[in-house]
Design goal:
single chain, alpha/beta, 6-stranded mixed beta sheet, 5 helices, 6 strands, 18% strand
Length: 148
Amino acid sequence: MSDVDIKRIILIGRSGSGKTSLCQAIRGEDLKFYKTQTVHIENMSMIDTPGEYIERAFFKSTLTAAAVDAEIVVLFQDPTREQIIFPPVYTSMFNKPSIGLVTKTDIASEKSIQNAEHFLRLAGVDKVMRVSNKTREGIKEFLELIKK
């Protein structure tokens, strides 16, 4: 499946939560870890955002503006970092369908994954999924969900 076959999504989450790696996994590329410095649009379908935009209040309005062109909001929760990053009902400000992705499921404990799922539900996502960009677990199911 190519990027043009999916709805336009915006990826929001902490630095290192797997947003850029998901873009690479969707394209079937080997994972190359690098830091996203600014809003980056991948093949007109994936809006990749820097983690600092959710981590620092000053930048949060930039996420709102960047999400205007998205059809689906995707929130990332890294279960290896036991910290809530999204405020309760965060997704309501976008007025768009939302998906919560628990990433790094290949290295996290089941308890940590369940906590991450809980954090995403508190943020108001419509659906929670588990993915591993490294093993590709859950990627196919995610792609089916965001197909045009």
